[in-house]
Design goal:
This protein is an alpha/beta fold. It has helices at 17-29, 41-49, 68-75, 97-106, 118-130, 167-173; strands at 9-13, 34-38, 56-60, 88-92, 110-113, 135-138, 141-144. β1, α1 and β2 form a beta-alpha-beta unit.
Length: 193
Amino acid sequence: MSYSLENVSVMVADDNAYIRRLVRTILEGFDCRQIVECANGQEAMRQLSLGAEPDLVIADWAMGPTDGLELTAELRDEAHSPMPFVPIILLTAHSELHRVIRARDAGVNEILVKPVSAERLYRRIASLIDQPRPFIRTPTYFGPSRRGEDMPFAGPDRRRASPPAPAAEAAQSAKPSAESQGEAQEDDYFYID
């Protein structure tokens, strides 16, 4: 499906003016006309505090003084952020699994590995529209669900069981997930090209 971004506002935060212009040009090619450019995460937070309300934030990971992960953490801080639910696409030159996991755990919705292309950026934006992930709140995390795909649950269905299984029996029958065993797979979290 093809989307027009005519009514979508986007904030682009990157310390490289060339990358900001490139992303702006690509977005304008998608009919996006409401684009706010920021030279770093600190400037992005200042724009948000002054009333900017983007529908999407595209931020570079490696920028100073506030990088893309720090910006994400500030945006996902429900108590202090003006927009904790805003979708975030993180730009990075690195695609190593440990970096993908760090970004996912910070609350990023999508990662786009450089070089940036119109096709790849469009796919990330379309993914946010076509497959939105629900936001979850735990004692240590707030952000989009960290499951990259709908994964079936292999344990007992205690919501439908009558009567409920004792906790010890349920614990014995539940199998540990691959993630808890340290076998996380790259495609479990984000689509990486």
